[in-house]
Structures are given as structure tokens and as C-alpha cells.
Here is the input.
Amino acid sequence: MAGPAELENPDVITGCDAIVLFNGQLAGFIQDIDIEENLNQAEILAIGYWKPRGFKSLKWDGTFSATFHTLAVATQGVVKLDTSSPVAASAPYAFLFKQKSTGKRIASGIGHVNTKGFNLANNALSSRRVSFVLRDFKDLEALN
Here is the structure.
């Protein structure tokens, strides 16, 4: 007879345990990262069958958004998200998330700036909210 199932406390990646690199450059002052992948599952319907015969992914797309602190003075090492011209706006950004304590890679991807804006808040840090359209995204060895 087997004993009761037990789970040990898992090793969890927290926000302060992850570092973010854009085009190989450490991205400072970034928070509230959201990544969404849409597998676009669609039902397969067939004549003579009342219920779907199954589901298949018809396409893949994704978004990546984050909040960047708005800086009043240019600071060395801060990634510039340039959208000043059509050429600059269409440039891809490669990003990589790594676990700080082990160096293991959490995820990687390629995205293009979709929207960006900023907020000014009283008695709080102002920030830029940037949304990217994903071209590629991969879960890596530190994400289980």
C-alpha cells in the first residue's frame, strides 16, 4: 500500500529572480511583464456529426507587454525602444529571460513594438507601457 502523496515546496521563479535582456543588453527598470501565446484552437466540424470531430490549431500568435520606468535623464545601459521612423519601428527585438541565481534561461523570443505610451502619476514612479507583437517565443530549461 502506497503512503500519502507529498509535494515538496517547489523552486519558483519570482520577479526579482529574473533578469531580462533585449538584443543582448540588460534591460534595467522593467516590471509587470505579461506574455501571452494564442494557439487559436478551432473545432473541426463534419457533415453528419452533431459534435466537433476534434480541435486543431490553425495559427499561432502572441503578445509581450511590460512596464518600463520613465527616465528624465538618459542612462547608460537602458534599452531604447525607437519608433521614430518606419524602419526603426519595424525593427525586431530579441529578448531573453534568465534566472538570476542559476543562470538558467526561462524563455526567449522575438517581438516588434506594437504600441507604447506613458503615464504620469502623482507621488509615484511614471512608466511606459510597451506592447510587442511576438514573432517567436520559446520556453526554455528553467520554465517547467
